[in-house]
Amino acid sequence: MTDGLPDSLIPYDEIVQEALRAVVGRVLGSVAAAGGLPGDHHFYITFKTQAPGVDIPQRLIDRFPDEMTIVLQNRYWDLLVDESRFSVGLSFNQVPSKLNIPYSAITGFHDPAVNFELRFQATEGPNDGPEPHDEAENDGPVATPVEDGSNVVAVDFKRKK
């Protein structure tokens, strides 16, 4: 028996997740339009490598079969952004690579310069959670994120059954 609250017939959790992913698209779009990142801003973007629409080199899928994190900071090129996805050129172990990532595949977005972070629920299959993985170390300096909890948005809706 539940606590008396009915299950919602409106998918609020999905609507909020979609809106927050649009924030990522808007931020990336403004960076692409400006021709680069302003000030000290840089982004850690975590995504599901096997999600529908993800197009990355097979060697990266082999290395990160579930999830990987990329860094957009100094060494990236050809950032293209549209309503449902973005693509970017990055170098991994001195090998240039083109990545196409739909926003629906993103599970995390972090800008350590201002300690802003978004976390998303996975939108793929019935797995109980992601497998442990190493973060991708694409070429370029890597900053250590501040973990004091400020400006962090995490949305995790659970339905009571």
Describe this structure in words.
This protein has 161 residues and is an alpha+beta fold. The chain is built from two helices and eight strands, in the order αβαβββββββ. Strands 2-1-6-7-8 form a five-stranded mixed sheet, with helices on one face. Residues 124-131 and 142-146 have low confidence and may be disordered.
The neighbouring-strand order within the major sheet is 2-1-6-7-8
* Radius of gyration, taken over Cα atoms and rounded to an integer in Å: 17 Å
Main sheet: strands, sense, barrel: 5 strands, mixed
Distance between the terminal alpha carbons, to the nearest Å? 8 Å
Number of strands: 8
Number of helices: 2
Low-confidence stretches: 124-131, 142-146
SSE topology string: HEHEEEEEEE
| Class based on secondary structure composition and strand pairing | alpha+beta
The amount of beta strand, in percent, is 25-35%
| Quaternary | single chain
Q: Classify the helix fraction into a percent range.
A: 10-25%
Mean pLDDT: 83
